[in-house]
Amino acid sequence: MATPRSSPLGLVVLLNLFEGPSHAYRLQKLIEATGKDRVVNVRSRASLYQAIERLERHGLVEVVGTVSGSSYPDRVEYAITERGREVARDWLREMLSSTGEEFPEFIAAISLVFALEPAEARAELERREQRLADELTSTEAELASAPAGLPRLFLLEEEYRRALLEAELVWVRNVIDDLRSGRLTWSEEWLREIGQQFLTDE
After folding, report:
1. Does 202 have pLDDT greater than 70?
2. What does the pLDDT read at residue 53?
3. Three-class SS state of 129
4. Do residue 185 and residue 128 come from a single domain?
5. Has residue 3 been placed in a domain?
6. pLDDT tens figures, 13-49
7. Distance between alpha carbon 171 and the CA centroid of its chain, in Å?
8. Within 13 Å and on the Cβ side, how many CA atoms surround 154?
9. Out of 37, 152, 155, 176, which residue is the most buried by the measure of CB atoms under 10 Å away?
10. Once rounded to an integer, what is the mean pLDDT over residues 78-98?
11. Whole-prediction pTM value?
């Protein structure tokens, strides 16, 4: 059976099931309690259910029973399979070592920024700058509020997030400065000239 395509949310689910069977509600609460909701999107429980269904379809998890309660409906419990353990480690190795296979929206937008007027592009980047600054403040607060003595191993994702935010902020601010000063600019006429110069039928 072919190995299914890796999924960050699927990996988080599988690794949480290493500790033992669980149902979707408990998994969501555990993901939130460990801060992994800052790493994968579990805002909608539907996305978590979809991830679990996909894992079950590929034989990575299996239903092992239900949990009943007087104040809530029966909840299906899932356990990781042996194949699920193997695939989880394969996914983790792949995600740690691979680069350049993702297509973030921002890179696509930057490659097409000339479709806006320079002043409008600068205004949108200034909005992004503020959001990045807010996210950086939040990330620094997360790191600062970590329990004393918590091993660095459990803070690596926030360290990485901080490094990315700091680097992107520097870059975005440099582009904004160049747009503001006119060192970076364009016009329809200039774009046509560049197109004639660099784009050919060949």
Report:
1. no
2. 96
3. helix
4. yes
5. no
6. 999 999 999 999 999 999 999 989 999 988 878 899 9
7. 20
8. 11
9. 176
10. 95
11. 0.85
- The neighbouring-strand residues paired with 176 are none
Confidence of residue 1 (pLDDT cuts 50, 70, 90): low
Pairing of strands 22-23, 72-80: antiparallel
Q: Nearest CA to 81 among 1, 14, 11, 3? A: 14
Residue 171: inside a domain: yes
- The type of residue at 183 is R
- Asked if 14 and 47 sit in the same domain, the reply is yes
| Domain that includes residue 17, residue range | 8-97
192 in a structural domain: yes
- Supply angle C-alpha 79, 85, 89, rounded to 5: 140
On whether the CB atoms of residues 79 and 35 are closer than 8 A, the answer is no
Structure tokens belonging to residue 60: 């990575």
CA 196/CA 185 separation, integer angstroms: 18
